[in-house]
Amino acid sequence: MPKVEVNAGVELHFDDQGDGTPIIFIHGVWMSRKFFKEQLPYFSQNYRAITLDMRGHGDSTKVQEGHTISTYAKDLHSFITKLELKDVILVGWSMGAFVVWEYVSQFGESNVKGTVIVDELASDFKWPDFEIGAFNLTTLTHFMREVQENRENFLKGFIPLMFKKDVPPQDMEWMLEETTKPPSGVASAILYDQSIVDYRAIFASLSKPTLLCFGKDEKLIPVAAGEHLNACIKNSTLILFDNSCHCPFLEEPNVFNEEVARFIQSI
Predict the structure, then answer these.
(1) CA distance readout (Å), 17 to 21, 49, 77, 80
(2) Any stretches that span the bilayer, and where are they (predicted)?
(3) pLDDT for residue 8
């Protein structure tokens, strides 16, 4: 398993297969690169497919500091620079979408060929002028406390919310293993930061093609979130996945892979 040192001695572990245009898959909060297990073999046939664990997640360094979207974007920039990647496709799922938007906010779009946003809002927080947000202060406080006091049971209830259908026991086992790898302090810190960031202000400046992939099942993220992004990001296309909730890349991997490949071929 390769790894690369990014900032302040932090090592990001990653998988890297294939040749051609680099596609970087960025996971959600508490998750890991292993959630993209259906994408690596497919996209590596025609592209350079890369899945990585952000700091504190998966197999990457469990450093206690730097757990903000801003720092994760800096880590991503360092990762891209160290590997000398050019004209990248950034695929951001859930929290990974915030990392993508923060990356282009800090470093621009010059080295980005296109972006794929998977089932995320412009902000997770339910601001006074953003009613479709996923969390209010009460919900966020509850989540923060559960992470500290009752994490495994909380995750056993949360993970099924990401899927339209029941999660098989064997899948629940590996997902629990991955989502409990971040130390509880790390899990709380990044949960808070990723829940209150708000990227509505940057959408008007985005110019590179964007594919928006949303599950029709709305246990976590409403379809209205995708429609809002589609209206705000001028060079975007919205695709809805009939049999998915928060994880179309796992729930409908063949359809997801084909749609993303078609998008990449078109830009």
Answers:
(1) 11, 5, 20, 15
(2) none
(3) 81
Active site annotation includes 246 = yes
Domain holding 182: CATH number?
Answer: 3.40.50.1820
Segment 29-66, tens digit of pLDDT: 999 999 999 999 999 999 999 999 999 999 999 999 99
Annotated active-site residue 217? The verdict is: yes
* Segment 4-18 mean pLDDT: 94
Q: How many domains does the chain have?
A: 1
**DSSP secondary structure string for all residues of 173-192:** HHHHHHHT-S-HHHHHHHHH
Please give the Cα distance from 61 to 63 (Å, whole number). 6
> What pLDDT is recorded for position 1?
78
Q: Is 57 a catalytic residue?
A: no
Question: Which position among 94, 188, 195, 236 bears the catalytic label?
Answer: 94
Mean pLDDT throughout 92-106?
98
Helix, strand, coil shares, percent, the chain, to 5: 45, 20, 40
Distances (CA, A) of 104 to 73, 101, 113: 9, 5, 11
Which structural domain range is residue 183 located in?
A: 3-266
**Residue (of 19, 21, 17) closest to 2 by Cα position:** 17
Phi, psi of 22 (to 5 degrees): -75, 130
Residue linked to tokens 């920039």: 77
Q: Using DSSP, state whether 200 is helix, strand or coil.
A: helix
Residue 188 has pLDDT above 90, yes or no: yes
pTM of the model: 0.97
| Residue 122, token pair as written in the block | 């412009």
From 67, 75, 217, 236, active-site residue: 217
Query: CA-CA distance, 49 to 45, in Å (whole number)?
Result: 9
CA-CA distance, 128 to 52, in Å (whole number)?
A: 35
